Amino acid sequence: MSDCIFCKIISGDIPSAKVYEDDKIFAFKDINPQAAVHFLVVPKTHIGSADEVDEANSDCVAHIFKKIPVIAKSVGIKNGYRVITNCGPDACQSVKHLHFHVLGGEQLSEKMA
To answer: Which residues are catalytic?
Structure first.
């Protein structure tokens, strides 16, 4: 999608601090970290949100969840992490490209903010 910021990050048109990449996914540091370690994992195929996950693209989402523990370990997360995705305006989804926030590297608050 030509106007999607995450598609532009994946293509290299917008710079990012990449932490992982393979043929299906791209992971990069969040520019406004909410924890000691905070990165995003996005599918390279444009999927608008969790509402758009279906039979045709669910294998990519499964791949993301297989890779999150590997990526988390590679960036130094040792004692657990939180995975968050926002879906739609009431959840404050700011970029309409499915993405998963991974937060860790410290004791996280029990409160969701």
So the answer is: 99
Q: Tell me the pLDDT band of 2, cut-offs 50, 70 and 90.
A: confident
Domain ranges of the chain: 5-104
Residue 46 near residue 1 (C-beta atoms within 8 A): yes
Q: What's the pLDDT tens digit per position in 53-95?
A: 999 999 999 999 999 999 999 999 999 999 999 999 999 999 9
* Arch. (CATH architecture) of 5-104: 2-Layer Sandwich (3.30)
- For residue 28, the tally of other CB atoms under 10 A from its CB is 20
User: Could you write out the three-class secondary structure of 16-77?
Assistant: CCEEEECCCEEEEECCCCCCCEEEEEEECCCCCCHHHCCCCCHHHHHHHHHHHHHHHHHCCC
Entry pTM? 0.94
Of 34, 50, 32, which is closest to residue 42 (Cα–Cα)? Answer: 50
Closest CA to 80 of 37, 42, 46: 37
- Round the CA-based radius of gyration of the chain to a whole number and report it: 14
